[in-house]
Design brief:
This protein is an alpha+beta fold. A 5-stranded antiparallel sheet has the order 3-2-1-4-7, with no helix packed on it. The protein starts with a helix and ends in a 9-residue tail after the last strand.
Length: 167
């Protein structure tokens, strides 16, 4: 009898919940015209469908040659950098040598100027004139040129920060 009381109590609670509508949708035997809410596929399913479509579809673009890709690349659009003025950033200082990164393959090393020498610190932005992008020469009788892993540039001065200058 003690066991029946808790079970009957649970049954009465469930009947109250069913009458209040909590479980009415689950226990309904009526056929409803309501369509279940459409679920949107997840991001993995969307990506899967996208790439499955690519695998089956035929490519309409003609494959390009390496020469045509290189000719139309942004790198070629830059032109010959030698003789151009670029900006760089001092990333290392050894005695009076400034190591400057200007965004190309190699950095350059320039002597610190005597005028305003204290302003040339690590992190300062400078202007450079590019003479050569890669220094190389023959050493100790070698027939091939050996690169020095640095560019040849002329330090023109500090980059003027126009936001700091009062007008």
């Amino acid at each position: 009898m003690a066991l029946l009381r808790p079970i009957s109590y649970v049954i009465r609670l469930n009947i109250k919940n069913i009458r209040s509508g909590c479980y009415s949708r689950l226990l309904s035997t009526e056929i409803s015209d309501e369509k279940p809410a459409e679920t949107k596929p997840g991001s993995y399913a969307q990506a899967f469908e996208k790439f499955e479509g690519l695998k089956d579809g035929k490519s309409t673009e003609k494959p390009q040659t390496f020469a045509s890709l290189l000719r139309n690349s942004k790198f070629i659009d830059l032109g010959d950098p030698e003789g151009k003025v670029v900006s760089g950033k001092v990333f290392h200082i050894v005695d009076d040598d400034l190591y400057i990164d200007f965004g190309w393959k190699f950095h350059c090393v320039c002597p610190r100027p005597k005028k305003n020498a204290s302003e040339y610190v690590r992190g300062s932005k400078v202007r450079l004139l590019i003479k050569e992008l890669e220094l190389s020469s023959k050493f100790l009788g070698y027939e091939k040129d050996i690169t020095l892993l640095e560019a040849d540039c002329v330090l023109l001065g500090l980059v003027q920060d126009r936001s700091k200058n009062p007008q």
